[in-house]
Amino acid sequence: SVSPSPPAIRVRPLTCTETRRGDRQVVHSLGDGTVHVSAARHDATFGFSAVFDAGASQEAVFEGSGMRQLVELAIDGFSCTVFAFGQTGSGKTYTLMGPLAQSETRPAAPGLLGLMQRSFACLLEQSRSRSSDLALSASYLEIYNEQVRDLLSPGPPCALPLRWSKTRGFYVENQLSVDFESLEVIADLLLQALNPAPPPAGSQRRRTSAHALNRHSSRSHALLTIHVRSRAVSVHPALGTACPSKQGTLCFVDLAGSERVKETGSSGELSVEANNINRSLLALGHCISLLAKPRGKRTHIPYRDSKLTRLLARSLGGSGITLMVACISPSSHCLSETLSTLHYASRARRVTTRP
């Protein structure tokens, strides 16, 4: 077995609201993959493969987290997953997708592009350097209130059944997969997804709401999967055949933020959403805790406890290679959630898979 890409930590800057409120910065990067939390009754140091402080660029996160290697492994036929985890408002969606304000008519500055767009560019770069044909398709799902919904299918999103088979594991039935002739089209899909104006595609249809912690809080878990079929072109036309094809996947998982309902001021439908989010994240944390134990001491891994853990079963402890980017706030006001996220990521370091 091999270890997955170890968790990376990203510490966002203090927001204007936190600064005006007088919050103290209690999280500090000490270098060499070490982050220190210092506050009243709390003094702890955590070690990870990489820690990105508030001054780290999007490019630095892409290169330093091992994301480029994950793209290369997907082209080589592996199942690769990157998921962002953390409190609501900690910078998960920004890390994966860049600024929410970007659109086709107002693209983001190149330096602000997230892991997704940079991965698309890397796929194109690798395709050219390896002299191989890449056939690409994409699927885009969200898990909202424990219902799996297709974000690419036309019309209002409807719930799709989640099945299991011995050969495929857990899979979504009747999920739409869209073929792409170029990586630029996938990038355009992402821009349409971020665009609040019609047409209603991608994450524009994804559930978001405003509350006390975040004006654009993600109320669902979103999974964008790029299916990569790679076929090396024969350099000897007389042979008449090419090398065997490889089929890999690159899945981006933007988890809804963990949160304390009383701090968000949520009620009614928002409260129901928050409770479903927290239950699924609790199930995810429970699976990670059990997977972190030595194989000889593991009990049954309860993947069936939530739709999220079912869809991530292979990524977490199966045949995939997984990168976790844990996003945290440096604010003293968020200390409890920050410590929870750091402990969460520490457990994930001990999980091994067999890709």
UniProtKB/TrEMBL annotation:
InterPro entries: Kinesin-like_fam, Kinesin_motor_CS, Kinesin_motor_dom, Kinesin_motor_dom_sf, P-loop_NTPase
Residue ranges, annotated region (Disordered): 197-217
PROSITE patterns linked: KINESIN_MOTOR_1 (PS00411), KINESIN_MOTOR_2 (PS50067)
Biased composition (Basic residues): 204-217
Alphabetized UniProt keyword annotations: ATP-binding, Cytoplasm, Cytoskeleton, Microtubule, Motor protein, Nucleotide-binding
One of the GO biological process terms: microtubule-based movement
Subcellular location: Cytoplasm, Cytoskeleton
Gene3D superfamilies membership: Kinesin motor domain
Pfam families: Kinesin
MF term (GO), any: microtubule motor activity
Annotated binding of ATP, by residue: G86, Q87, T88, G89, S90, G91, K92, T93
PANTHER family: CHROMOSOME-ASSOCIATED KINESIN KIF4A-RELATED, KINESIN-LIKE PROTEIN
Family: Belongs to the TRAFAC class myosin-kinesin ATPase superfamily. Kinesin family.
Name recorded for this polypeptide: Kinesin-like protein
